Amino acid sequence: MLTDSLCKSATCPSDKPHKRFSDSGGMYLEVTLAGGKYWRLKYRLANKEKRLALGVYPATSLKMARLKRDEAKVLIGQGQDPSAVQKMQKQSRQQPTSTTFKEIALDWHKTKSSGWSESHAEKTMRQMERDLFPLIGNRPVRAITGNEILFALKKVEERGAVETADRGLMICRQIWEYVALDGIPDITRGIKAKLKPYRGKHFQAIIEPVEFGKLLLAIDQYKGGIVVKTALQLAPILFQRPGNLRAMKWDQIDFKSALWTIPAANMKGTKDRKENGDPHLVPLPTQVVKLLRELKPFVGTSEFVFRGERQASKPISDNSVRAALYSLGFGKSQSWHGFRASGRTMLAEQLNENVEHLEAQLAHAVKDTNGTSYNRAVFIKQRRAIMQRWADYLDGIKRKATKPIRSSGGNKKTKKY
After folding, report:
1. Which string of b and e fits 15-39 if b means at least 16 CB within 10 Å?
2. Rounded to an integer, what distance in angstroms lies between the CA atom of residue 79 and that of residue 81?
3. Tens of pLDDT along 302-322?
4. SS3 helix, strand, coil % of the chain, rounded to 5?
5. For 101-194, which CATH superfamily applies?
6. Any idea which fold 209-399 has?
């Protein structure tokens, strides 16, 4: 075994490039002809002989070298390669400490947004630019504290945007997860407990058959334009997303097959699903086909089923149906988007329909028992029968609504565009 005095006096013969002086446990001191002295550890892992650098003598003393040798032996005993661990530790130490939150956030956004929809990517960027960058954007990410993030999110809460603050925290959590392997500790823990609780957005939806029947009767008595009225009539029957219903085009309707095909690009989802996913198929009950045929002469040559009142090249606005619901006296109890919840709930509770088929009708992603991330079964045959039963059911509860509700909005005459 080596001693301090031997290490000091160790030299390399002039006829050799280096000479090794063994200690114990595979460790040795390698002395070069130029006078350099390097600690090395010889070990075997997965039947391969390897060497690990332990330091330079005398900066790394004999005692320190032995401690490093013992630490490496522990890793080897655990099946880990100390050379690989040493390399990762070195990379971590070399990470720039001055990297700012904005630089990291932009890199995270660039990496992740390739799989997002364009609208989600833009929304996330706008929020970071508005709520996070002005306060912590130029701060070194390693120096930011949890209280700094909390302060930024409290500013968002102060303007009444509780949901936006919650989403801001989610963004921060993902960014700190992004740098976790760089040895940067997660400082987002505990912040949620100090923010106002946000439980997600719930759209107003009537799910009681008697009240829903009154709403349907009120819709039939709507005195506004026929385009908005037809959109109102189709919304509870088809219960698709408002954006999809508004943008419905005549070339998406197959009257012969009674089928509405919504392109994948128009559906909610990731960029990949929009570009490579399947279209969403919506079976049309006979009541819907009849309403569409009656509407067609009123919209002229517009490609949109629900053409705008002022511009045939655009669909009706999102506010059109919302305003109509308020004029009927149901604006606070039933939202346009809420028709999805109304249909989903009553079909399950009142008609006992198959939940999986209903989720397919809603175009929801479904985790199946085989572990598939998205169940691609469309159940078109089953859904066609369900949709017809649903439309017939709605006709039934509408007939039972014996008290007509007078509309206070819209023009008395039907508009023809």
Report:
1. eeeeeeeebeebbbbbbeeeeebbb
2. 7
3. 999 999 888 888 999 888 999
4. 50, 10, 40
5. Tyrosine recombinase, N-terminal domain (1.10.150.130)
6. hpI Integrase; Chain A (1.10.443)
